[in-house]
Design a protein that fits this description.
The structure holds 3 protein chains of 3 kinds.
Chain A lengths: L2 H29 L7 H19 L2 H25 L4 H19 L13 E3 L9 H6 E3 H19 L1 H11 L1 H6 L4 H27 L11 H11 L4 H19 L10 H20 L2 H7 L13
Antiparallel strand pairs in A: 1-2
Helix pairs in contact in A: 1-6, 1-9, 1-10, 1-11, 2-3, 2-4, 2-9, 2-10, 3-4, 3-9, 6-7, 6-11, 10-11, 10-12, 11-12
Chain B lengths: L1 E5 L5 H25 L4 H10 L5 H26 L7 H18 L8 H27 L3 H21 L34 H18 L1 H11 L1 H7 L3 H28 L10 H11 L4 H25 L5 H21 E5 L4
Antiparallel strand pairs in B: 1-2
Helix pairs in contact in B: 1-2, 1-13, 2-12, 3-7, 3-8, 3-10, 3-11, 3-12, 4-5, 4-6, 4-10, 4-11, 5-6, 5-10, 7-8, 7-12, 8-9, 11-12, 11-13, 12-13
Chain C lengths: L8 E10 L2 E11 L4 E5 L6 H8 L7 E6 L2 E3 L4 H7 L1 E4 L11 H9 L5 H13 L15 H13 L5 E5 L7 H16 L3 E6 L2 H7 L2 E6 L2 E6 L6 H9 L7 H7 L21 E10 L9 E9 L3 E5 L6 H9 L10 E3 L2 E2 L5 H6 L2 E4 L14 H9 L14 H14 L16 H13 L5 E5 L7 H16 L3 E6 L2 H7 L2 E6 L2 E2 L3 E2 L5 H8 L5 H4 L1
Parallel strand pairs in C: 3-8, 3-9, 6-7, 7-8, 13-18, 13-19, 16-17, 17-18
Antiparallel strand pairs in C: 1-2, 1-4, 4-5, 9-10, 11-12, 11-14, 14-15, 19-20, 19-21
Helix pairs in contact in C: 3-5, 9-15, 9-16, 12-13, 12-14, 14-15
The chains are: A mainly alpha, B mainly alpha, C alpha/beta.
């Protein structure tokens, strides 16, 4: 396998990782019955916070933690509005996106043009010496490894733990969960904050590893692709991982298109992920039974506890 | 502990009170923001909200910026009332600009009365065609229109960039990715000298009136409202959901496309890779701030337009970054969503019995 | 069952008030181990409030609770469960997408593991309510879903089991099974508090009865000795007639000849106004029901009833007849001879077919719109509200709404009041009135008095009778057998999307209709 291909596959990993983070977080949020359209704002918040702190402190670790914290903080705003004040989840999510784009642009003003060293590679020397697979699988930074661990953890949490069962129940019927004494609002808060933290980590990856710098609106629509990803994955963590790599791969294809001998204009290539998302949405949605069985039934509807 | 208690009947006072409270809170937060940025607060408030209105040119600009916002937002709010979430107005705006602009370029140097009307038709058709995609996908495949219309937006931006770099590029233009400047017959007249105000403002007012009549006085408007509030009841009444979805999306697309055409035939005068400062997205906020009511949308549009102008003016006079506008708009929507709760719920302190 | 042991639970002077209504007024109640006690009263008598206090969902304003002789405070359902009180609600708290095992785990605080699965199987079989722990709930019937609720309770080994209207969703056979289970539990020493308004069942099952009316405990009774009439009188107060107007509430035995009139022998009678033949309608959603081979015909002046337990296709049938779903062929549904199978609700209304769906808020009316606007919902097709142009005639709509309010005694703040501010009974009167005052030729109505107070139910029944007497063909779909037996000339049953043979109501009794509801295509087939 030529080096160009290995490099291409490596870039697919880096392209997919932010999608994995944002997607797995939103998957948990939606399994609890909440729709958060503010992923763009959350990712940007994580990106700018991570970059700012990493730059100021010189520590990538602090930067990552800052990205996580920024995501959680912004998500708290969303949670307060939608869960406590019962506002429309769609409108609030959009507001979060627009506010997030503006706020992060403001905060990031002084950070434009600054370079950052990127995240250190964590490689196990003898493992990465394996031909072909070695460099492919074992020479990544901590956030990439983290993304896999996160997906595995979420999968285990949802299907094997009591708390995961309660979360799934809340997403299926918050009214029933409430009647049985489960704390619906609290569970949803936890889910939304978790989702925010994940999106923040995805954003941190963008500004610390993917293109180690800050640019206004640098998430470039990934938040929206992550939303589509969750539906594409039919709310299953394993499929989300697959989907993220698929979409990431398509995105990379258009970047490296010329190097690989494809001669389409770059804009057409750039359209591919969006077209692919539409296609997938259509394929998934037309099968009503599949949606009904696997989609959290209460998505998007506000829940007000009454006795 | 604060607690929310549902009101038996929605509070009429709060329907108008809540947006005013939200506005007030936004102003307060804005002052705090200015203070944080180290800018003299009163000067900033003046630059933002007063300065743009003091000149004839400024008032004209208010109309220039408010017209597309109001036009699009009225159509969007009608759709939102029917729970049809058209988030892709930005893409529909661009598609309308592309279609109408292409007509202008095709008729280049032809000075005839029919050029502008043809461009207008192109704008309407382009916007509607772009909105027809999410409409079709929703009706036929039940695909979520939020995501499909949004994906189409990104595609539209890329398409515009593709076209002005290639087929529509000005052959005499030093290879910049822009189209020719439109000829005189393809430009909107400017009735108010000294400003860039154009017919779009009048059209926006007409749209407000038409929207109001539609929603409150016609069966179609009634059907849209019922469908948004109680889809089963709408079906029971014989209102066809698919027709309502098509109408909502096409109306939004048409208005967005028309607004796009007005932009390129008015203030801009040609096709460029970037023709809209996010009007399609801001229109969504305008729709919500206007409480999804055509008259409310008119006021909200003017406020939002003012925030755009204010951002520019503050940038010039005080060096404030342009991103402050986005922050303001986002904050206004947040506060509005927060105060909205007062309409349907009462705030109670103390413990639950 | 009257032993000398102290009562298991004793409530003394329980009082609970809400803004505007005194739900419980110094109510006393006591129940012993092994006793099956009925809590009797009509809608609004205070039964729900009382048991919510017992189960810890509400705190009483005054009064005391004693358990096993000791004063206790039941601050929450968890505390109630700790004491040994379990409750099966009328509305289930289940999760469709999850399995039986997961549902039981969520309702009991136990872990969803193999051990629990085994316990579910053994307990459910022991009490005659078999359940497969691995099935997803959305595949289960209503009766099977109730089993999950009961098994949830039984796994906690309760000493007191409260059941709230348990048989409203069961077929007569399932009711028998349930009664066997309850009798068994009582024999094992479990106390059972049985809330119901069905006098026949109470007399069959219960050892004792406490009757509530208007928030007060008005009497005790011994169901074995009291007659249905006695119990009804205690429940409703003096002066009640066991006539057809009250039949829906009181559960009088069938064949009561009080009140039911023979169809008007006018010359219009006999003309078939609405008919279907062999209508098949595929399921509209993956977990919905398909209609099969639906053949019915309703003549002018006839009141035809379709019995059936909820979830057997009633919604689908109404949708098919009202036009919300189109039939495969136009000829599948005939209205006065016109093929309307492919027509929508608007077209059908213009031709004279009006309908009232089961769900008031959200289907029959839009909760946040005013009554005037809700008039527009269905009346915009017919005079006097239809105008013909694209503009609405709001004044006509308001006047029409006012007329409905007056003629049907709808208690509200006028035509501009919002639909959700009306009580269930008043909103139902409004909706029924809206359709009736449009002077339809055919009326299809589903669950006309469900969740409606006795007064409103009486008004609605009177109006339906009058409608039939005027020559309108009326189809009545209902879960309430007593209502159907009292009102209808002919009756059939809907089970799993199929219709049974129709019989004259005078020729059949409740048991027989129950057989049809349970799936028998005809009485001959069931024999």
């Amino acid at each position: 396998m030529s080096d160009v291909w290995i490099l291409t596959l490596l870039t697919i990993v880096t392209a997919a990782t932010p999608l994995v983070y944002a997607g797995i977080g939103e998957l948990v949020v939606e399994r609890a019955g909440v729709l958060n359209l503010g992923l763009e704002g959350l990712m940007l918040g994580g990106a700018v916070a991570a970059f700012a702190v990493a730059h100021l402190s010189g520590s990538a670790t602090l930067g990552i933690l800052a990205g996580l914290a920024a995501g959680v903080l912004l998500a708290t705003l969303f949670a307060f509005l939608t869960l406590t004040l019962q506002s429309s989840q769609v409108a609030t999510g959009l507001a979060l996106t627009i506010f997030g784009i503006g706020l992060t642009a403001l905060i990031g003003q002084s950070l434009v043009g600054i370079a950052f060293g990127g995240l250190p590679q964590l490689s196990v020397s003898w493992l990465s010496a394996i031909p072909v697979f070695g460099p492919l699988l074992f020479e990544h930074d901590i956030l990439v490894y983290g993304s896999f661990a996160l997906v595995a953890t979420v999968a285990w949490f949802l299907s094997r733990t009591r708390a995961g069962l309660v979360l799934r129940a809340v997403g299926d019927s918050p009214e029933s969960a409430h009647a049985l004494g489960h704390p619906v609002i609290r569970v949803r808060y936890a889910a939304v904050l978790f989702g925010g933290g994940c999106a923040g980590l995805g954003g941190a990856y963008l500004s610390l590893a993917y293109t180690p710098m800050w640019v206004e609106n640098m998430s470039g629509g990934r938040g929206w692709i992550a939303l589509a990803l969750v539906v594409f994955a039919v709310w299953q963590p394993g499929r989300l991982l697959f989907g993220a790599y698929l979409f990431g791969g398509i995105g990379i294809l258009q970047l490296h298109g010329q190097a690989l001998g494809l001669t389409w204009p770059s804009q057409l290539m750039s359209m591919l992920p969006y077209l692919a998302t539409i296609l997938v949405l259509v394929l998934i949605s037309r099968d009503g039974g599949r949606i009904r069985r696997n989609a959290p039934a209460s998505i998007g509807r506000p829940f007000h506890p009454t006795l | 502990m604060m607690r929310l208690e549902r009101r038996a009947v929605p509070s009429r006072v709060m329907v108008w009170g809540a947006p005013l409270i939200a506005l007030g809170l936004t102003l307060l937060a804005g002052c705090a923001l200015f203070a944080l940025l180290g800018v003299p607060v009163l000067a900033a408030l003046h630059a933002f909200f007063v300065e743009p209105l003091t000149s004839r040119y400024g008032l004209g600009e208010l109309g220039v910026k408010a017209a597309p916002l109001v036009m699009i937002a009225v159509a969007l709010s009608i759709g939102f009332r029917a729970q049809v979430w058209n988030i892709g107005a930005e893409g529909q705006l661009i598609a309308g600009a592309i279609a109408g602009g292409s007509v202008a370029l095709a008729l280049y140097e032809i000075e005839a009365w029919y050029v502008l009307p043809a461009m207008v038709l192109g704008g309407l058709a382009g916007g509607m065609a772009w909105a027809a995609v999410p409409a079709f996908l929703k009706v036929r495949f039940n695909a979520n229109e939020i995501l499909t219309s949004l994906m189409m937006s990104y595609i539209a931006v890329l398409l515009l960039s593709l076209l002005v770099s290639g087929p529509l590029r000005d052959p005499d233009g030093f290879n910049f990715p822009e189209s020719r400047l439109f000829h005189d017959a393809a430009l909107l007249p400017r009735p108010w000298s000294g400003t860039r105000l154009h017919a779009g403002a009048a059209v926006a007012l007409l749209v407000v009136v038409a929207g109001w009549v539609l929603l409150s006085r016609t069966l179609l408007g009634f059907a849209l409202r019922v469908h948004g509030q109680a889809p089963r009841a709408a079906r029971h009444a014989g209102f066809r959901a698919s027709s309502l979805v098509w109408f909502s999306l096409l109306a939004g697309g048409a208005m967005a496309g028309l607004a796009g055409l007005f932009e390129v035939a008015g203030p801009i005068g040609q096709l460029l890779p970037s023709i809209s400062p996010g009007y399609g997205f801001t229109a969504i906020i305008v729709a919500f701030v206007g409480r999804l009511h055509p008259v409310g949308v008119l006021f909200a549009g003017l406020i939002m337009a003012l925030s755009y102008l204010g951002g520019e003016s503050a940038q010039i006079t005080l060096g404030l970054p342009l991103a402050v506008t986005g922050v303001f708009q986002g904050m206004l929507l947040f506060f509005l969503l927060a105060t909205d709760v007062l309409i349907r719920y009462r705030v109670r302190t103390g413990t639950r019995t | 069952m009257q032993s000398a042991s102290p009562p298991l639970m004793r409530l003394t002077g329980i009082t609970k008030a809400y803004p505007g209504v005194l739900a419980n007024d110094a109510v006393d109640l006591s129940i012993r181990a092994g006793e099956i006690q009925a809590l009797l009263g009509e809608n609004g008598a205070g039964k729900s409030t009382l048991v919510k206090v017992m189960y810890g969902l509400l705190q009483a304003d005054a009064g005391s609770v004693h358990w096993d002789g000791e004063a206790v405070t039941i601050g929450s359902p968890a505390r109630a469960r700790q004491l040994g009180i379990a409750m099966v609600f009328q509305h289930f708290s289940l999760f469709d997408a999850l399995s039986v095992l997961e549902n039981v785990a969520l309702g009991t605080g136990l872990d969803a593991d193999a051990e629990l699965a085994e316990r579910i199987v053994s307990v459910s079989e022991r009490y005659g309510l078999p359940l497969d722990p691995n099935r997803s709930v959305y595949t289960l019937s209503v009766g099977e879903r109730q089993r999950i609720e009961i098994v949830r309770c039984l796994l906690q080994e309760p000493r007191l089991l409260i059941m709230d209207e348990p048989t409203s969703v069961l077929t007569p056979v399932e009711v028998d099974t349930l009664f066997e289970t309850l009798a068994r539990l009582a024999a094992e020493g479990v106390a059972i508090l049985y809330i119901s308004h069905k006098l026949g069942e109470i007399r069959a099952l219960c050892h004792s009865a406490t009757i509530l009316r208007g928030g007060r405990r008005v009497a005790d009774a011994d169901p074995a000795r009291a007659s249905a009439d006695d119990l009804a009188r205690l429940m409703m107060g003096d002066g009640v007639q066991l006539g057809a107007a009250g039949a829906g509430v009181l559960g009088t035995p069938a064949n009561a000849s009080t009140g039911r009139q023979a169809p008007c022998p006018s010359d219009a009678a006999g003309t078939v106004r609405l008919s279907t033949s062999g209508l098949d309608l595929a399921a509209g959603a993956p977990d919905a029901l398909a209609l099969r081979d639906i053949t019915l015909s309703i003549a002018a002046g006839e009141l035809v009833g379709i019995a059936g337990v909820a979830g057997n296709g009633q919604d689908e049938l109404l949708a098919a007849l009202a036009g919300e779903r189109r039939a495969p062929n136009a000829e599948d549904v005939l209205l006065d001879g016109t093929a309307i199978g492919r027509s929508g609700p608007g077209e059908r209304r213009r031709l004279g077919l009006c309908s009232v769906p089961e769900e008031r808020l959200g289907h029959g009316a839009v909760p946040e719109l005013s009554l005037s606007e809700n008039v527009l919902l269905t009346a915009h097709h017919r005079a006097p509200v239809a105008r013909g142009g694209p503009l609405l005639d709001r004044r006509a709509a308001k006047a029409f709404a006012q007329r409905i309010i007056e003629e049907f005694d709808v208690r509200c703040d006028g035509p501009d009041s919002v639909a959700s501010s009306l009580s269930g009974g008043n909103l139902q009167k409004f909706i029924v009135g809206r359709e009736i005052l449009q002077a339809p030729g055919v009326l299809v109505i589903s669950q006309p008095t469900w969740g409606v107070d006795a007064g409103a139910a009486a008004t609605i029944h009177r109006a339906l009778r009058a409608l039939a007497a005027d020559g309108v063909a009326v189809l009545l779909i209902s879960q309430d057998l007593d209502e159907l037996m009292a009102l209808c000339d002919r009756i059939g049953a809907l089970c799993a999307g199929r219709l049974s043979t129709f019989y004259a109501t005078a020729d059949v009794d409740v048991r027989q209709v129950g057989l049809l509801m349970g799936g028998a295509a005809s009485l001959e087939a069931a024999a």
